[in-house]
UniProtKB/TrEMBL annotation:
It comes from Klenkia taihuensis. Residues 385-403 have a biased composition (Low complexity). PANTHER family: FIBRONECTIN TYPE-III DOMAIN-CONTAINING PROTEIN (PTHR46708:SF2), TENASCIN (PTHR46708). The keyword Manganese does not apply. GO terms for molecular function: hydrolase activity, acting on glycosyl bonds. The lineage of its organism: Bacteria, Bacillati, Actinomycetota, Actinomycetes, Geodermatophilales. InterPro entries: Big_13 (IPR044016), ECM_Regulatory_Proteins (IPR050991), FN3_dom (IPR003961), FN3_sf (IPR036116), Ig-like_fold (IPR013783). This is Fibronectin type III domain-containing protein.
Length: 538
């Protein structure tokens, strides 16, 4: 689950009076109501238990059976004591609980081994040491076994049984002086003279870690954007927390969630101080269930440069020109960006602070938003000045077959001279402005075949279907747009059509664009002007 690029989102141009997202816009959306925290306990008397919903780990205390005394009174070893936290389980797991038993005392024969209905946990019997002393039996192990019909049963927690007393003492089950668990934090060497037992407490599930998409600096603040956890593991998420010191402490984070993801603003930060930021989900009645933390990112708040003033936007065919007045302060350069709905890109990245104009190409369309912001001496963005409602016109449709410029409309294998009505073919052309709109037409009378956006090199490739009712005979295919200087560019080829009808059709081709690189990149963030920094000086 990967998501919006932090590097591109970090270039977002927000409203002229803000950096990032205003705290006045923040609210809690998409957060579930708190549910009671699941609780569950168990003990050895239950024999078999099933892990309930909402429990993803267990804390366990287990004591193994002690070894029996030898016939001469030599005591057996105590059983092991296991105290472990956060042993992983899953809701629905069937757990068999085995409580160990002490080994029998030696007498006229070796003591019996501690019994267990789980054969691997039983202790062994004592023996004659060769000098007439009979050893005590070894204690049996206490533990938990997960029933797994697919892969076979397996143990997840074991407290060993003590060895029997005397040189002929039986072996206690399990590794002596080693407490074993499948996971978690525990003591490995504890023993206990208490009676064998086992008990446990369920640990509620918590949400997976969010994915921290970006952290952008503001004036005494930082805005975080993240993707919600992939799974809440059955525990409803009731909110989020944020850390600015790499997890040493956490605080509630008010967030807003929309089609672009989830975001929130951290306030009260000190400018020019670097913070290590991460987020986590929380749940439970009092948000006591802390989810896994996201990966961290560093951010340094700062005072941004003011927004440029006197911003003016003019347009011609597939081209936008922006001019502005420099803001006060030390300016290193400018970023100029454009957005269209939820897509956006960078128009210019200017490294000369004396340059206050920018011209760049964009596909034809209406309701663009254009913005400009200054870059300070540390390469940090200032506040943005934006102009919404910008319309970029498309190519002017010629009324007659235009004069051909250098180059041809071709197919993947080269020139095209003959086509068949109803045929599907690919048309290609080059020499146009990058990221500009090209219109395809067929003459005798001009009929539009659709439009296509050029790639970063000013080329296009488009698949079309020749209308089945196109007239037989000679036709002209025209691709009209603008070149890299903004001048009209026309590619014209003459083709002979066969398999059609005897009169000229008034319908065109069905144009279906195919994938080409370099068009406007779809990004999140309606109203944000976003783009990778492609440095240019114009």
């Amino acid at each position: 689950m990967r998501f919006t690029s932090p590097s591109r989102r970090a270039l977002g141009l927000a409203a002229a009076s803000t950096i990032g997202m205003s705290t006045a816009l923040l609210g809690v959306t998409g957060i579930a109501s708190a549910a009671p925290t699941p609780t569950w306990t168990f003990n050895g008397s239950q024999g078999t238990v099933t892990v309930p919903d909402g429990i993803c780990a267990i804390d366990v205390v287990a004591i193994g059976g002690a070894g029996g005394a030898a016939s001469d009174g030599s005591p057996g070893d105590p059983g092991g004591r296991l105290e472990v936290e956060d042993v992983d389980v899953q809701p629905g797991d069937v757990l068999e609980l085995y409580v160990g038993a002490a080994g029998g005392a030696g007498g006229t024969a070796g003591g019996t081994g501690g019994a267990s209905t789980y054969a691997d946990f039983a202790g062994s019997a004592g023996e004659d040491d060769g000098n007439g002393v009979f050893g005590g039996g070894g204690g049996s192990m206490t533990g938990i076994v997960v029933v797994d019909d697919e892969y076979g049963d397996y143990s997840i927690a074991e407290a060993f049984g003590g060895d029997g007393g005397g040189d002929g003492g039986g072996f206690g089950s399990g590794f002596q002086n080693y407490a074993s668990a499948d996971d978690g934090t525990y003591s490995q060497t504890a023993t206990s003279t208490s009676a064998p037992s086992i008990s446990g407490t369920g640990v509620a599930c918590v949400a997976d870690a969010p994915y921290l998409n970006y952290v952008t600096a503001g004036n005494g603040s930082a805005t975080v954007g993240f993707v919600a956890p992939q799974s809440d593991n059955g525990i409803a998420i009731t909110g989020y927390e944020v850390t600015t010191n790499n997890g040493s402490s956490w605080a509630p984070l008010t967030v807003v969630t929309d089609e672009n993801g989830t975001s929130g603003t951290i306030t009260g930060l000190t400018n020019e101080t670097t913070y290590t930021v991460a987020v986590r989900a929380v749940g439970g009645t009092n948000n006591e269930l802390k989810g896994a933390a996201s990966q961290s990112q560093s951010v340094t708040p700062y005072v941004p440069l003011p927004a440029p003033t006197n911003v003016s936007v003019t347009t011609t065919t597939s081209r936008i020109t922006v001019t502005w007045t420099a803001p006060a302060g030390q300016v290193k350069g400018y970023d100029v960006g454009v957005s269209y709905g939820q897509s956006g890109d960078q128009g210019c990245a200017i490294t000369d602070p004396s340059v206050t104009t920018c011209t760049f190409f964009a596909p034809a369309g209406s309701d663009y938003t254009v913005g400009v912001r200054a870059i300070d001496m540390q390469d940090r963005p200032g506040l943005s000045a934006t102009r919404p409602g910008v319309t970029v016109p498309g190519p002017v449709k010629p009324t007659a077959v235009p004069t051909q410029d250098n180059g041809d409309i071709v197919g993947p294998s080269g020139p095209i001279s003959k086509i068949t009505a109803g045929q599907t073919l690919t048309l290609q052309g080059s020499g146009y402005a990058p990221n500009s709109t090209v219109e395809l037409l067929v003459f005798s009378s001009p009929v539009s075949l659709g439009t296509v956006v050029t790639d970063e090199n000013g080329s296009f490739s488009v698949e079309v279907t020749v209308p089945a009712n196109l007239a037989n005979g000679t036709h002209h295919l025209v691709a009209t747009g603008v070149d890299a200087n903004g001048n009209v560019r026309n590619l014209v080829i003459t083709v002979t059509v066969s398999g059609g009808v005897a009169t000229l059709a008034t319908t065109g081709f069905d144009a279906v664009p195919v994938a080409v690189g370099g068009g406007l990149v779809l990004l999140t963030g309606a109203g944000l002007l976003v783009g990778a920094r492609r440095r240019s000086d114009a």
